[in-house]
Amino acid sequence: MSRPTVRAVHLVSRPTGAPSAENFAFVDETVPVLAAGEALVENLYQSVDPYMREEMDEGGWELHAPLEGRTLGRVVESRADALPVGTLVFHRQAWRTHSVVTAERAQPLPDFAGVPLSAHLSILGGTGLSAWVGLTRIARLQPGETLFVSAAAGGVGTAAGRIARLLGAGRIIGSAGSAAKVAHLTGQLGFDAAFDYHDGPIADRLREAAPDGLHVYLDNVGGDHLEGAISAMRDRGRIAWCGAVAQYNNPLDPPAAPRNLYDVVGKNLRLEGFLVRDHLDARPELYDFLVPHLRSGAVVPDETVVDGFDHVVDAFLGMLRGANTGKMIVRIGG
Fold first, then answer.
1. C-beta separation of 75 from 83 below 8 A
2. Is the peptide bond before 258 cis (omega within 30 degrees of 0)?
C-alpha cells in the first residue's frame, strides 16, 4: 500500500534583515512506515510566532530540513499505545501537513468542553502562558496597579490585557502599530488607554496615559519602548521582559535605547527577562484560572486565523509585519 504524502516547508536560505518568501520552499515528502512507538498526526492548527525570526538565523533552524513550531493535530495512524487513533495532541513538529511523533514528543490535549481547540495555541498556549508568567511570577502584578503592555495587539499582548483585567489591574495601557489596533485594544479588549507608537516619543505617550506612573511593564518590544517605560516607572516598579521584536531583524545592530538604563538603579526598579519554556509547570495554573472564563464566554480568545497550509509562509511574514490582531494561527485542516 502506498504511503500518504506530506507537504512541508523548509528553510532554504537565511535572511539579512527582514525575511521574505524566497527564504522558504514547499516540499512534498512521503510518510515513512511507522516504527513501534510512533504515531502519524494530521495537523489541524499551527502557530506562527515572533521567536521564529531568530530561528532563521545561523545557529537556529537547519537549512533544507523540516521546521519547528507549536502545532495541534489528530492522530490518524498509530503504533503507540499512549496515542490511539483520534487523540488530539499538541506537538512541535510544525510547518507540515502531517507529522510523525512519539508519545514523548506529543501531549494529548485536555478535554475542555466549550473551549475552542485553537485556544491551545493562543490564550491557553505559549502566548497566554507567557503573559501569565510575566504578570504573575515575574512582575507579580497586584490589584489596583497600573500596567503597560507593548505590542499589545499581538498574541502575548492581548492575552496579557485579558489576564491583567481578571487579576484586578487598576489601569491597563497598551501600545500598537496603527489607529485600528489602538481602537481594537480600547474598544474590544478592555484596555483603559492605548496609543500608536508612531505618534511620538513613547515616554511622552506614557506620561499622558499614566500621569501617576507605571507599577508594571510587560515588554514585548525592547528598544525605545523599554526606554520610555523606564522613564515612566514609579519607584520600585517591576519590568518583565518577554521579547524584543524591535531588533529581531537586526540582531547585530541593536537599538541604542534604552539610554536611561541607570534609572533602574535610581528608581529601585526590578527588570527581569524570562523564557516561557522555563515555566511550563505554570500551565495548570493558567488552565485553572482561565478555562472557567473561556467556558462562560467572559473571555474570548483574540485570534487572526489564516486558512490553508499553502498560506503558512504568508501568515508568518504577515505576523512579523503586524498584520494580525491577537494570535496569528494557520488552520491547516480539520
1. yes
2. yes
Q: Which of 94, 96, 100, 93 is nearest to 75 (CA)?
A: 100
| Residue 270 CB burial class (10 angstroms; 0-12, 13-18, ≥19) | middle
Whole-model pTM?
A: 0.91
CA 292/CA 331 separation, integer angstroms: 25
Could you write out the DSSP letters of every residue in 234-277? EEEEEEEE---GGGTT-TTS--S--TTTTHHHHTT-EEEE--GG
pLDDT classification of 3: cutoffs 50, 70, 90: confident
Q: CA–CA separation, 178 vs 160, rounded Å?
A: 19
Kindly tell me the burial class for residue 28, based on how many C-beta atoms sit within 10 Å of its own C-beta (0-12, 13-18, 19 or more): exposed
Neighbours of 323 (CB within 10 A): 13
Residue written as grid cell 494530521? 42
Cα distance between residue 49 and residue 320, in whole Å: 8
In this structure, what C-alpha cell is assigned to residue 38?
A: 510512533
Alpha helices in 22-67 (DSSP H): 51-55
Longest dimension (CA), the chain: 71
SS3 76: strand
DSSP 120-161: GGTTTSHHHHHHHIIIIIIS---TT-EEEESSTTBHHHHHHH
User: pLDDT tens, 49-96?
Assistant: 999 999 999 999 999 998 999 999 999 999 999 999 999 999 999 999
